[in-house]
Every structure is written in C-alpha cells, then in structure tokens.
Design brief:
The structure is a single chain. This protein has 15 helices and five strands. It is mostly helical and 410 residues long. The chain has one domain. A three-stranded mixed sheet has the order 3-5-4. A two-stranded parallel sheet has the order 1-2. β4 and β5 form a beta hairpin. α4 crosses α9, α5 packs antiparallel against α6 and α10 runs antiparallel to α12. The longest helix has 28 residues. It is globular. The protein starts with a strand and ends in a 9-residue tail after the last helix.
Amino acid sequence: MSLQYDTLARTWPLPLPAPTATRVEVGSIARPRLDSIDLLRGLVMVLMALDHTRDFFGSSGMNPRDVADPALFLTRWITHFCAPIFILLAGVSAYLYGTRGRSTGEISRFLLTRGFWLMVLEFTVVRLGWTFGLGLDFFVTQVIWAIGASMVVLAGLVWLPRAAIAAIGIGMIAGHNLLDGIHAADFGAAGWVWNFLHEPKLLTLGPGMQLYALYPLIPWAGVMAAGYVLGPAFALPALERRRLLLTLGATITVGFLVLRLSNVYGDPAPWAVQGNALASVLSMLNVEKYPPSLLYLMMTLGPALMLLAVFEGARGDLARRITTFGRVPLLYYVAHIFLIHAFAVVVAALTLGDAAWLFGSLPDAKPPGFGFALPGVYVAWLVVVAALYPLCRWFAQLKRSRSEWWWSYL
C-alpha cells in the first residue's frame, strides 16, 4: 500500500503500519529532506574532528571538564553534540531505508548485519587508526561500537508496533538514570554484562588483555530507537515537518533547563554556583557522557531537532561542503582518525625527534613539550577537515553512481 504525504500527516504521531505495508513516495521532496539530515550529520562530524584533534595534540586529558578553564571546557562541550546526533540520525536513516519498499524482515536483517559489521570495524580498523598498533592488549567500545550494537537492538525492535518502539526508546533515555544505584558488583561474576549495559568500566579479558566498556548500550540504543520513531516526520509536508521539529526541539531544550536548574533528576552530579557567572553556567552544562545522562541527551538532542528544521533552507558553498561529509560518514570517521594520528606522528618526529610513543596505545599520555596550545589545536583541526574534503567528495560521487547492495555497508 502506498501512503501519500497527506495520509502520513494525518496519522503522525500515531503508530504507523509496519514497514512491510508502508512505502513512502519521496521523489518530490527527497533532496531537501536528505540534505538537511546530511548537513546536520556533516556538521557534527566536523566537530568530532575537533575533539579528536584535541585528543592527539592538546595538553589536556581526553575528557576535560574543568569549569575554571572556559575555552578548553567549551571546546570539549561543543563536541558533546556529536555522538547523540550521529546515533539519532542513524535511527532516522534506518526508518528511511525501510520506506523504499523493503519488508520488516529485510530491514531487520540489514540492521543486524550492518550492526555486527560496525562492531567488527570498531575492534579492527578503527582501533588500528587510534593506536597504530596490531597488539591485542587493549580495546575500547567507542561510538562506532555503540552505533553497531544499537542497530542490533533496533533489528529486534522493528518488529514491534511503533508505539512500543517509542515507549522503549523514550523509557531508556528518560529512565536509565534510575538505575544509577545499581552496580556491576551487585551481579557477581555476571557484572561485566552490566558494564556493557549501563556502568562503564575497564574490564580484564585475560592475561595482558583489557577492554574498556566506555559506551553503555542502554541509553544509546534508546536514542537510535527514538530516531527510528521520528522517521515518519520526514514524510510530512515541509511546513508541518519544520513546525514539529522546532516545537519538539524547543520543548526538550526548555525541559533540560528546568530539570537541570532544579537538580532533582537526570544527571549523577548536580550543578553548583561557582565563583563567577560564567563558571556557574558551565557547571550547569557539565553533564555526564559516560553513560550519557538524561540531561546530557536533552541538552544535545533538543537543539539538534531545531537545527534539522533550520537546515532545510540552508544554501551556499559551505553548506554544500559540509553536506558532502554527511553523505559518507563511515569513510570520514575512519579517514579522519588515521589522518589526525599520522599528523601527530609527523609533528612528534619533527618537534621531539621521537614518535614511537604514538604507536601501540591511545594518545592519553603525551611527552613534555609535545602538542599545541588551544589556538594551534583549532588550526590543526581546520587543516584536517580541509584535507579530508577531496576524498569525501570523490567517495560521495562514487557511492551515488553505484547500486550494488554492499555499498549500503559503507
């Protein structure tokens, strides 16, 4: 059965039929809709490169949160938008994948296989980019793993009514902080399962082998499920879609402010008045990412929804270039890690005469005298982004010209 936009407009946000019976005619508005999604995804990917450039070249640790250093704090804070938006849009894209005449079984199978594929990439290619080492001593579950694992969860959820998917997704996002009082130690030998679900921890897999469970699954799978439920909004008429996205985004953002100011619920660490107004504001913004608290997700996803609405009218050369990045997210992610790391090796060799410390481990402990001050980090970031553009433009054009099934995995 083919559903036209007026039908979807009347049914949203009520549960829609399963994708088996749903085919959305997207030809007339596909480009503006997809451009807004790709533009937002491209923007957060550009910001992600800033975070990882700081990881390799900055003098701070990998998660600086000192409210007494506003410039460094905000450099890290702005990149908090990356993972939530990336995972939300992956859920939206999963829904749009199903509007092309695919059955629920086809959607589920694609999510399952691509999810496992991404998890394998995290522990192989992505790990190699971060460490430049082939040893099997240390692994980290980072954002690519989180996307892949969330896709595996969504592969099961797509069989449920849309209302049930919404309830599960929102429940994971809004309710997982109620689980903060439960700890892995409470489960004895099975505690490692809880570390993957909710409580990050460095786990010992065996002699000389460790895994840092950094991105717990419960909240991130909820974000992807929420993105999937949001998918039908992109088949609404443009005015209704923008109104919906703006209203929903503004409501979530205001909700964040009210809930954060109240210090009642939503983050394990309350904010506090500091010695000056700016530090007090930064204390309010200093919410937890590992795992992402309810307030962390509200703070990032509320503005993201509003940006989706605003970006539908984006034009110009800069928007076009950023959109290009958003069309090849996996290539960009892998390439930017390798490029930044290689850049760091060159700088270390030239400035210290030694780059051996950049092979075999994460760049969390840097030798004295290495790296840039914060302005230099920003310059290095812009150089990296500019260098990535020709590759991403070429690959985006190549993907657009190909129709083989396996391109969906790249």
